Amino acid sequence: MTGSERRQELLQLLSGTQTPLSGTALAKHFGVSRQVIVQDMALLRAQGHEVLSTNRGYLIQAPLRVSRIFKVFHTSEQIADELCTIVDLGGTAEDVFVHHKIYGQIQAPLHISSRRDVQIFLEELKSGKSTPLKDVTSGYHYHTVSADSNETLDLIGQELEKKGYLCQ
To answer: Which residue range or ranges hold the 3H domain (predicted)?
Structure first.
């Protein structure tokens, strides 16, 4: 196994766990010295990978995501456009919720992050199993949207506003 292949496998191992992997255990796994693993980690960091060294071993730092709540209003025919606007700009519609005057907050997870997810969601709605949550509050509802940066969330907000979906 070449050093490059070992580093690729190291990334796979680290990405597949949330538990720190010790340099000694990794060295044993690959049949190399612990110092080789230390050097591999330095090379991975130099390539831009977020490798963390802890007192219990190495971890890959999960990319940080930021989130924002958007209050929106639209018709049922505009659901696809609203969700596609969010995912096309790099966002994930994590949930939908409404503030009902009697029942309080009613929330449902969505985790819609692609056009395919949008299609699956729309097919579920069309099946007649249920109606959109927005219907209980005359079209007004909220989405928690996550993305890789605040700039992405700003773009999503601007586009939702441009399309007339965003409420202030």
So the answer is: 71-166
